Amino acid sequence: MSVSRGTLGASLTQEILSSLGLANKTAAWGTLGTLRTFLSFSVDKDVQKLLKAITGQGVTHSAIVDVLTNRSREQRQLISRAFQERTKQDLLKSLQAALSGNLEKIVVALLQPAAQFDAQELRTALKASGSAEDVALEILATRAAPRLQECLAVYKHDFQVEAEEDIRTETNGILQDLLLTLSKGGRERYSGVIDYNLEEQDVQALQQTRGSSMAGQWVRIFTQRSPEHLIRVFDQYRRCTGQELEDAVQNRFHGDAQQALLSLVSIMRNTALYFADKLHQALQETEPNFQVLMRILISRSETDLLSIRAEFKKKFGKSLYSSLQDAVRGDCHSALLALCRAEDI
């Protein structure tokens, strides 16, 4: 018997909101993001508040953080345009002049359109040694198709080069094939109908151990099949071989290809848990990895950060909010906590 994605999504929402004490507020919250449309939004009041925070006696960081972390990205864009119209000044440049350090980076990221933020992170990943298989894959594999296409269009406009060209220049082998295929945004959407024949074909293809087409089969399956289909393939693979697919990846692939395939398996199995693991790793470093924390908290704040928080608490026994509170120091502390939003008991 097939279960529709909508039914699964609703039950997951209820489960997570129940664990957060919000089970009766689903209608008000609407999404699994921590940041949502501010219902009492007044663009004029926000412009005045930001202007006062910048031009008053000393820059008021708390007022800037309060406005920008309590408005949706669409509302922040409206504030930027209104600020320009009323003051003849660019809000982003004005805030950059008033701020510094990591808080400035957060404010810039919050005020950018989502596609521009993703495009810059993707460009940095492809041009920075050793991170292409991590950040680039995260962006290409976890963004919805419309947002991904917008990101790639902004990438071409801002950097005067196609992202595909940079992928070909900066990567090679199976990793390159994975990134190029993911960049096309051609992953199948789940129809609600289980295709048992295709499931069997994919399992057989993944069991193939020799031949020049072996790697190509893995790339094709991992980048084109829906997450719902892949989870069933992973389960069937274990039943047929007695081995988890992650073990097969580690036995057959090495280096960047192995890491990329393992990341894709993790994303397909449970995207929220994948991001929870990345946040935990970033917090465990000698100095917390601010760039990772900022990218994930901002990019997931309007989609599924509540799910990520729930997975973080479940796996690590400590809330994401408390972990940020204990590990992060400096002027970005309050902004990251505001994006995370609340403690999970």
Tell me the Rg in angstroms.
22 Å
The largest pleated sheet is described as: none
End-to-end Cα distance: 36 Å
| Helical residues, percent | over 70%
Number of helices: 22
The ordered string of helix (H) and strand (E) elements is HHHHHHHHHHHHHHHHHHHHHH
The dominant shape is elongated
Low-confidence stretches: 1-30
Describe this structure as you would to a colleague.
This protein is mainly alpha-helical and 345 residues long. The protein contains 22 helices and no strands. The protein has helices spanning 5-19, 26-29, 43-55, 61-68, 73-87, 91-98, 101-111, 114-127, 132-142, 145-159, 163-170, 173-183, 196-207, 214-224, 227-241, 245-252, 255-269, 271-284, 290-300, 305-316, 320-327, 333-340. The chain is elongated, with a radius of gyration of 22 Å.
Quick structural overview:
The protein is mainly α and 345 residues long.
List its salient traits.
repeat; disordered N terminus; phosphatidylserine binding; 345 residues; mainly alpha; 22 helices
Give the arrangement of secondary structure elements.
Elements: H1 5-19, H2 26-29, H3 43-55, H4 61-68, H5 73-87, H6 91-98, H7 101-111, H8 114-127, H9 132-142, H10 145-159, H11 163-170, H12 173-183, H13 196-207, H14 214-224, H15 227-241, H16 245-252, H17 255-269, H18 271-284, H19 290-300, H20 305-316, H21 320-327, H22 333-340
Helix pairs in contact: 3-4, 3-5, 6-7, 7-19, 8-9, 8-10, 8-11, 9-12, 9-17, 11-12, 12-14, 12-17, 13-15, 16-17, 17-18, 18-19, 18-20, 18-21, 21-22
GO molecular function, one term: calcium-dependent phospholipid binding
Family: Belongs to the annexin family.
Pfam families: Annexin (PF00191)
